[in-house]
Amino acid sequence: MPMHFASWSLWRPGIAAGVVALIMPESSRLRALVPAPALQHLKAVFAGSSTLGSLVVVDWWDALSDDSFVDLIHANPAGRRINDGAVFNICSR
Q1: How many independent structural domains does the chain possess?
Q2: CA-to-CA distance for 3 and 38, rounded, in angstroms?
Q3: What is the pLDDT of residue 6?
Q4: Which residues have a Cβ under 8 Å from the Cβ of 24 and sit 6 or more positions away?
Q5: pTM for the complete prediction?
Q6: If phi over 0 gives left and psi between -120 and 50 gives alpha, with beta otherwise, what is residue 2?
């Protein structure tokens, strides 16, 4: 299955640590390859993530339009600016 994930821990003095699971952006051609039951299962797992502690799920799977990619998964400069700004916003919370 072609879904891509990234995760990292957030920790700063005086702020509780947490884990962010990021569903990375992909082109519509790649998203179309993911079977609907698999996507439903993934969403169900993440919906139940409150039992996993401080997990934060950020779903950017369809956040970029196809013209934001140089290929099926790599963002072009405009797409990277969108991603970089969004990651900064998450980390600065």
Answers
A1: 1
A2: 10
A3: 52
A4: 3, 4, 5, 6, 60, 61, 73
A5: 0.64
A6: alpha
Structure tokens at 54: 């401080």
Place of tokens 């790599």: 74
Give, for 18, the enclosing helix (H) or strand (E): strand 15-23
pLDDT digits (tens, 9 = 90+) for 30-82: 999 999 999 888 888 887 765 556 677 888 888 889 998 998 888 888 888 77
Q: Beta partners for 18? A: 10
**CB-based contacts of 19, cutoff 8 Å, min separation 6:** 7, 8, 9, 10, 53, 54, 55, 56
* Residues 66 and 76: beta-carbon distance below 8 Å: no
Q: Which tokens is 42 given?
A: 């993934």
Q: Which domain holds residue 41?
A: 5-91
Residue 28 has pLDDT above 80, yes or no: yes
Tell me, what amino acid is at 68? S
Residue that is written with structure tokens 């013209």 in the block: 67
